[in-house]
């Protein structure tokens, strides 16, 4: 049995692409997964599965959501060990920052460092970013909403070919607690 985290991208924002969490839990259970629980309305689910391939779990969930709601929702699925690795590898002092100041942009593959070579990191200070293993860490002291760094680093051209979703550090830690608790 593997504990997975499913991160849905772009749902329940501004009243569009509504996916009620109760129905999401039901869909995940209908796919044969157990112990399903969700966190907040933005599409975070933790569950157990006998399937060993997170990619297959993601594809099954994407297909079920599209069949149920009539629109495609990219789903990034990672196991608990990967989420723990993301938290442990954070290059910023997470314990000293507010959760809104630190974000993890989780990726379906490794980011190509060459696509970030033109970024003048000094010009974006005090905001900072770091590339990791299928993750980009964003330190935005004033939050992500008006961040020039996020606008620069998360451009679609830099992330072409990858499924991408961002969570604030409070959410990362809560999901980790749900996985390990």
Task: Describe the protein's architecture and organization.
The chain is 29% helix and 25% strand. The protein has 181 residues and is of the alpha+beta class. The strands form 2 sheets. Strands 2-3-1-4 form a 4-stranded antiparallel beta sheet, sandwiched between helices. A 4-stranded antiparallel beta sheet has the order 6-7-5-8. It starts with a strand and ends with a helix. The mean pLDDT is 92.
Number of helices: 5
- Largest sheet composition: 4 strands, antiparallel
Total beta strand runs: 8
pLDDT averaged residue by residue: 92
Helices and strands, in order, run as: EHEEHEHEEEHEH
Structural class: alpha+beta
| Oligomeric description of these chains | single chain
Strand content is 15-25%
Rg is: 16 Å
Please state how the strands of the largest beta sheet are arranged side by side: 2-3-1-4
Poorly predicted sequence stretches spanning 5 or more consecutive residues: none
Q: Could you list some keywords that capture this structure?
A:
4-stranded antiparallel beta sheet, 5 helices, 29% helix, alpha+beta
């Amino acid at each position: 049995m593997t504990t997975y985290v499913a991160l849905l991208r772009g749902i329940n924002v501004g009243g569009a692409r509504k996916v009620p969490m109760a129905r999401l839990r039901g869909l995940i259970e209908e796919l044969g997964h157990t112990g399903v629980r969700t966190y907040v309305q933005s599409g975070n689910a933790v569950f157990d599965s006998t399937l060993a391939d997170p990619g297959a779990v993601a594809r099954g969930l994407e297909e079920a959501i599209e069949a149920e709601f009539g629109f495609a929702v990219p789903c990034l699925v990672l196991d608990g060990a990967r989420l723990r690795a993301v938290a442990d590898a954070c290059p910023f002092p997470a314990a000293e920052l507010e959760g809104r100041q630190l974000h993890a942009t989780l990726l379906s593959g490794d980011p190509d460092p060459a696509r970030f070579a033109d970024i003048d990191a000094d010009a974006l200070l005090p905001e900072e970013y770091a590339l990791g293993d299928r993750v980009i860490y964003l330190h935005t002291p004033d939050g992500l909403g008006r961040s020039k760094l996020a606008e620069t680093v998360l451009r679609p051209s830099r992330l072409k070919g990858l499924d991408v979703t961002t969570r604030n550090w409070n959410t990362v830690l809560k999901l980790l607690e749900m996985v390990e608790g």
